[in-house]
Structure formats: structure tokens, C-alpha cells
């Protein structure tokens, strides 16, 4: 009789390569989700029609028809009011007075957007003052109305941005800093760079503001435009910071311009900021090296980080594990997580759990169990979701003995937690 494998350390077997570096987002399905969405849309439609009609009995009608509110309903109603050009200030005031309900920061931003869409700057001023009073931050959603439509021109957008900036400056308070930043971000995200530069020039030339422009240019793959912003920063006496450099580096690597990326790294090392290369720089380099299958180069970057006493983030370890795994080098992926258990102990749990999930997904359930078993032998608790999935699959394949063995190991940590001796 051939002995059945136990959950002990053994070489991990080969898996066929698969090109993937990100997981699909979860999409809700089913009639329950559809029914909930339909009900919320219907309720929002009723609210919009009531608010649009106005009248002296509006608040009483709202009280009667909507005894309870949710943040989702309020947000969807505010968006619908803005889309239909209906002022939302009265509705927002009613919602704010509802017992047991307080509008979220997101709802406050939607109220600002509503006033902006209607060019009602007194209403915007009141909304901003309310946010400052409640110490809430503005986001770029508040200025989404500045996105140019088919008939609007950049000059019109710039005029609107200037009017908004005056309101933000007049209100001042805690909202000002987040307001200027979010205004720049909203304009840059829609390609209105001249308007965004105008805001920066009329407020304060800060690397934080310029970085928004650099990031937007890089996201669009426009390295030339990003470099122009970089050069403009230096000309105006605003020194680029680590984020500026890293945005440029990521843009070059993403577009396969490796020689220029290497030259940029050399420029970083010669820069006077003293902030670069930093841990994020090495993470960007490592991620792209792993994605390209250049694991030896990635390892060199990692070693350099440790030499400079920089701590790799969990995302960097994930890039290594996935890089080895999808290249079919499973033993190297296993060796990596084992080596990092001593060099970067804080990430050991996640590293082992990730490898176990990858093995399980590729159909190597027993190997996944071995990895989790090895983790528990180090005195560390596996990720709960990984443990549950592996145990279930072991049962399904008729290996209840191995599932029980894994369960006993996992149960030990529950006992330790009860005794206040939790290991992580």
C-alpha cells in the first residue's frame, strides 16, 4: 500500500505559467442585488420629484414618506438632483436634521458639486463653511462639475475654476488646504492642465500640487508632458520630492523605456533632495522587473534595499511570489517566502498565505496545505480565509485526515489567543 502524503515540508511541484498580476474585482450578482438597486433608484426618483416640486410642505412630505434614511439613498439623491439641475441645499438641510442620521463627508462633497453645477456660489460658500465647521475634507468629487462638456471650452472651465477658487479662499478654514488640492486634482484628471496650473500659481507652488499634474500626465502615458511639469517645478524654485521622481520612473517602466528609467535612477542618486531612491523607488523597480520575469534584477533591488536599511512592503513581497509562481518557478517562490521569514518577519504570515492561495488556485491542494503547515510550525497563524479554503478542498478530495491535521494546528492559535499568547 502506498503511504498517503502528510502535511510536512516537501519540494513544491511545477505549475504551468500564467500571466496575471491582479485579481478580478468582485461583481455582485443575483436577483437580491438587482431588487435592492431597483428599490433604491425608485426611492431616489421619488425624492428628486418632491424636491424639484418644492412647496411649503416639502419637509413634512419628506418626513411622512421617508422615516428612515441611509447614506446610499442620500448620496444617490444628491447625484440625481445635480444631474437634473435641481438645487439640493433644502433637501440636505432636511436630511441633516433627521434623528439618528448625520450626512457623510461624501454627501457634503456632493452638495458642493450640486452648487457648482448650478453656478450658485453663495450656496457653495455655505456648503464649504459647513464642512469647515465640521472639519471635513474636500475631495475631487466636489469639483467634478468642472469636467468639460461637449460644448464647453477650456477658457470657460478656467473661468469657473477661478470663481471656485475665490469661494474656497474666502471661506478659508480647514477646507482650504484640501480644497485647493482637490481642485487641482479634479482639473488635472480631466486634462484641464492650464486651469490646474492657474490654481497653483494663484495659491502656492507646492510639490504636492505639482505632483497631481505629474501623476495625471504619467497615467496618460505622457512622459514628455510629465517631464515638462518636472522642469517647470525646478525653474520656479519648487524642488521635486520623492513622489515626483517615482511617478516619472513608473511611467517610463510601464511604457518599456528601460534605458531612460536607468538614467532617471542615476539622476535620483545625484539629486540634492536626499529622499531618493526610497523604498517606493525600489518597489516600482522590483514590480516591473518581476512582471517582466527578470527575477535576478528584482533580487538585486531587494538586496540593495536591505543594505540601505529600507523595509520592503507587503506589496513588494507579493510581486516576488507571483513573479516566481507564474514563471513556473514554484520552488523559488517557496524559498523566497522561507528566506523572508527571517529577513522580513513582519510579512511572513501574508507571504506564506499568498503562496498557499496560489497553489490552491492552481489545483495543488496538498502543496497548499504543506505551506500552511510550515507556517504554523514557525509559530505563526495562517490567514483564516486561506486556511478555510485549503481545509475545504482537502475534504472534497477525500483527504479529511490532512484537513483534520491542519485544523488541529490552526486550533492551537485559538487556545493561545484565549490565554493572551497570540503569535502573529
Q: Brief description of this entry?
A:
The chain is about 65% helix and about 0% strand. The model is unreliable at about 15-30 and about 415-424 (pLDDT under 50). The chain has about 425 residues and is mostly helical.
Give an account of the 3D structure.
PPR repeats lie at residues 206-240, 241-271, 278-312, 348-382. Keywords: Repeat, Transit peptide. Belongs to the PPR family. P subfamily. This protein is an all-alpha fold and 424 residues long. Among the domains are: 60-204; 278-424, Serine Threonine Protein Phosphatase 5, Tetratricopeptide repeat (Alpha Horseshoe), CATH 1.25.40. It has helices at 31-53, 58-65, 71-83, 89-96, 105-117, 121-133, 154-171, 175-189, 193-202, 207-219, 223-235, 242-254, 258-270, 279-291, 295-307, 314-326, 330-343, 348-361, 365-377, 384-396, 400-418. α7 (154-171) packs parallel to α9 (193-202) and α20 (384-396) packs antiparallel against α21 (400-418). It starts with 30 loop residues before the first helix and ends in a 6-residue tail after the last helix. 39% of the residues are buried. Mean pLDDT is 87; it is low at 14-28 and 417-424.
Give descriptors for this structure:
TPR-like_helical_dom_sf, repeat, PPR_rpt, disordered C terminus, 424 residues, flat, Pentatricopeptide repeat-containing protein, transit peptide, mainly alpha
Amino acid at each position: 500500500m502506498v503511504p498517503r502524503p502528510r502535511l510536512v515540508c516537501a519540494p513544491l511541484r511545477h505549475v504551468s505559467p500564467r500571466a496575471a498580476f491582479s485579481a478580478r474585482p468582485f461583481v455582485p450578482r443575483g436577483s437580491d442585488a438587482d431588487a435592492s438597486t431597483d428599490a433604491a433608484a425608485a426611492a431616489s426618483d421619488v425624492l428628486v420629484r418632491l424636491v424639484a416640486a418644492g412647496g411649503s410642505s416639502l419637509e413634512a412630505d419628506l418626513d411622512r414618506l421617508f422615516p428612515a434614511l441611509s447614506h446610499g439613498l442620500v448620496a444617490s439623491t444628491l447625484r440625481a438632483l445635480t444631474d437634473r439641475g435641481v438645487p439640493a441645499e433644502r433637501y440636505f438641510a432636511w436630511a441633516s436634521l433627521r434623528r439618528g442620521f448625520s450626512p457623510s463627508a461624501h454627501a457634503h462633497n456632493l452638495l458642493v458639486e450640486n452648487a457648482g453645477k448650478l453656478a450658485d456660489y453663495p450656496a457653495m460658500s455655505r456648503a464649504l463653511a459647513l464642512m469647515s465647521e465640521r472639519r471635513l475634507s474636500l475631495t475631487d468629487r466636489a469639483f467634478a462639475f468642472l469636467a468639460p462638456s461637449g460644448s464647453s471650452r477650456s477658457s470657460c472651465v478656467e473661468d469657473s475654476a477661478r470663481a471656485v477658487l475665490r469661494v474656497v479662499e474666502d471661506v478659508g478654514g480647514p477646507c482650504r488646504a484640501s480644497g485647493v488640492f482637490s481642485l487641482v486634482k479634479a482639473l488635472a484628471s480631466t486634462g484641464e492642465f492650464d486651469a490646474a496650473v492657474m490654481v497653483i500659481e494663484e495659491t502656492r507652488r507646492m510639490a504636492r500640487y505639482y505632483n497631481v499634474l505629474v501623476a495625471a500626465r504619467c497615467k496618460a502615458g505622457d512622459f514628455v508632458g510629465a517631464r515638462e511639469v518636472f522642469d517647470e517645478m525646478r525653474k520656479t524654485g519648487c524642488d521635486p520630492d520623492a513622489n515626483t521622481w517615482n511617478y516619472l520612473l513608473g511611467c517610463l517602466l510601464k511604457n518599456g523605456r528601460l534605458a531612460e528609467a536607468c538614467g532617471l535612477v542615476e539622476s535620483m542618486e545625484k539629486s540634492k533632495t536626499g529622499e531618493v531612491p526610497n523604498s517606493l523607488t525600489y518597489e516600482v523597480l522590483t514590480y516591473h522587473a518581476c512582471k517582466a520575469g527578470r527575477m535576478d534584477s528584482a533580487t538585486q533591488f531587494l538586496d540593495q534595499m536591505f543594505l540601505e536599511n529600507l523595509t520592503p512592503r507587503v506589496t513588494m513581497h507579493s510581486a516576488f511570489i507571483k513573479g516566481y509562481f507564474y514563471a513556473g518557478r514554484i520552488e523559488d517562490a517557496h524559498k523566497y517566502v522561507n528566506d523572508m521569514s527571517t529577513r522580513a518577519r513582519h510579512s511572513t504570515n501574508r507571504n506564506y498565505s499568498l503562496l498557499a492561495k496560489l497553489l490552491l488556485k492552481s489545483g495543488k491542494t496538498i502543496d497548499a496545505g504543506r505551506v500552511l503547515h510550515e507556517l504554523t510550525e514557525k509559530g505563526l497563524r495562517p490567514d483564516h480565509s486561506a486556511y478555510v479554503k485549503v481545509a475545504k478542498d482537502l475534504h472534497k478530495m477525500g483527504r479529511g485526515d490532512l484537513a483534520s491535521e491542519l485544523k488541529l494546528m490552526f486550533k492551537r492559535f485559538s487556545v493561545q489567543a484565549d490565554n493572551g499568547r497570540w503569535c502573529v
